[in-house]
Amino acid sequence: xxxxxxxxxxxxxxxxxxxxxxxxxxxxxxxxxxxxxxxxxxxxxxxxxxxxxxxxxxxxxxxxxxxxxxxxxxxxxxxxxxxxxxxxxxxxxxxxxxxxxxxxxxxxxxxxxxxxxxxxxxxxxxxxxxxxxxxxxxxxxxxxxxxxxxxxxxxxxxxxxxxxxxxxxxxxxxxxxxxxxxxxxxxxxxxxxxxxxxxxxxxxxxxxxxxxxxxxxxxxxxxxxxxxxxxxxxxxxxxxxxxxxxxxxxxxxxxxxxxx
Length: 260
Known about the structure:
Mean pLDDT: 94
Number of strands: 12
Distance between the termini: 57 Å
Order of helices and strands: EHHEHEHEEHEHEEEEHEE
Structural class: alpha/beta
């Protein structure tokens, strides 16, 4: 059976997201917490995890003493995050929401991982940073990561295919991603496929979508227009890895005081 719907990663296969996208969560959260402390955002401060997914970063940062609220557009991912939080429930909360929608709540810091590439139009890309600035207290800290255009295009031109197979309690799951480069629009066109085999029966879900990568200059100018300063760039959630060494840009910035 073949199904075409919304991105299966965020819906019918949300339960397998962490198994397919394996991340060194504790190590990366250690770097995030260090950057926050360096910028005066200490444990006990409030943090918004914008596009929190399954909540593993939010829960780990709550374990490190932050009061974290996670927001994601996928109800399925939020359900997983809520169940996984367990004993950290008093310091972490989750809800379904759109990070482009303004809120009256103000935070000391915002974390946004792997989400900003999904904003394709210039208007939406500027708007999301303006929403972040609005949601932060003065001198609040924004930490984010995006795909860097030039290195991502070069890497995906060499390695367009990604495939991972995992054994789960629901069956054998094979995830395949094939990327094409749209150089004119600075985009990656991605075809994804999930194949789940259970008891001799196979279920196939396919989805095609677009990511628009960022250049370092574009990211800096978008942050500046939205009212951020003190921008630091890295190549990973590791201060020893410099920007340009990988196909990612990891950024820490501050909301500038009003009037500056």
